[in-house]
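Annex B, item 7. Sequence and structure tokens for protein A, then protein B.
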Amino acid sequence: MKILVCLTKAPDTTTKISFTENDSKLNEAGVQWIINPYDEWYSLVRALELKEAGIATDVHIISVGKADVEPIIRKALAIGGDEAIRIDADSNDSFFIASQIAEYAKANQYELVMTGKESIDYNNSSIGAMIAELLDRPFISHVLNFNIQNGETTSVREIEGGEETDTCPLPLVISCQKGLAEQRIPNMRGIMASRTKPLKVVPASNSEPLTEIISYEMPPQKSGVKMISPDNVDELVKLLHEEAKVI
């Protein structure tokens, strides 16, 4: 069984965000890029665990981006991926990205496509579902636990107020979240091996984006905190009526 793991780059959480070109583009100067944690810590590592258990034969990495995405792809190879594919395109449109990945997955007959539940930059949580729709495959989201036996998958996913257990035959698309696997750190042997593992650059297919970013804006600064004495209930009630905002 071949597994395709989808990765995207994201700014490190300590990055100071600013914008350029009339607030229509992220200012990438000085930005430290990392693998989106949901893709790396849970999706990629669980795929590697399936290979180590003898269930999967190959774990391939795919990302849509320009050459600046290759360092994070190499890190994924250092962690244990067998081969990587970079689709040569630059877009933030979810449909465009999903269509590129779906076309490659279909042409290369991957039985399982895995994504993180969301990216930590845009938080749109839409790529996995779009890939599944384009491939005409079942999709299971927010997976906490996942196993495969005799060509059938059993997964536990988070739902409002509890958990849900699903069974589904392959082929399948899943999105992964915290709890599915534990983070791995690449060792020196893996880092050295990653330099010789194949990283194919594939031209983008003929797919048009459906959305366009008009502008970004920073959230308003938080106002100061007013401390009220526990004994001053009247003042607290007054402030709740006059100044508190419901969000």
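Protein B:
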Amino acid sequence: MELSMDTKEVLTKVYDKDSESLKFIRKDKTYNKELLTIEETLSKFGLLKNEIKIYLFLARSGEKKAGEIAEAISLHRTETYRILHELEKKGILYSVFEKPIKFTAVPLDKAIDVLVNAQKIKINLLEKEKENLVELWLSMPQIKTENKKKELFQMLEGEQQMLLKAHELLERTQETFQVFAPDEYLAQLFYSDFTDELKDHKDKINIEILTGKSPKSVFFMKQMLLSKLKCRTVEVQNLPCFMISDKKELLIAFHENDFSEDQDKKKFKTVAIWTNYSAFVLTLQILFSKLIGEPIQ
């Protein structure tokens, strides 16, 4: 019995490893969101859009010839061959010794392990090169510059860059580190283990944390065991996350809408600003003191 056109529009073919055959599954909005999440995660490992398309097509469909892959994802055959060999070099595809040659994907869990290990190796190599690069740089004639302090700012985009800057700020702090984190940012800090770093510094510097009064904030405070730190909840809404180091440096983060034509792809992206501009730092310092109910010093 043939499937009607209406049914075909809501079904998609997926390769079943157990039965070694294709099966139809319902393609609904939940499925699309799950697939989108996988695509976004793979892009963080440096895979390009068409590389992700080809890998996921093979992971879901089983062994395929290059021509079949090119036709399925509407890509030129020459470009398809190039990407297939790139993915094979990355270790997440196999070539099947048949004529004509076919390709098959490494299972997703194994592919992620391969990509993670590749990133670790790259980072280790860069760390080993650091000392040589610094030594080489210092051996060059240095241009004399004024040591006069300047007020600066830096724009950062993405959660990872924001967290790296927060870590850098925390490491530089000598006396007081203040954090205002609404519940959605508190969750972000928790899942990135930044709150563990805060607890590691609690015996060296004074750490103060403010968050909004919400069930979500209370939940994460319990999960983080923030009772070990000076942490309070306050009645406030619609404020960004900000961190102040020694009343001299400020990191402020915003969530921006990342709009797309596809409503399923609508999401938030993190944008942050770091500055040592004294007037800006003082303004947020006053706000923090007002929220915590203590006079500014």
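Comment on protein B: The longest helix spans residues 108-138.
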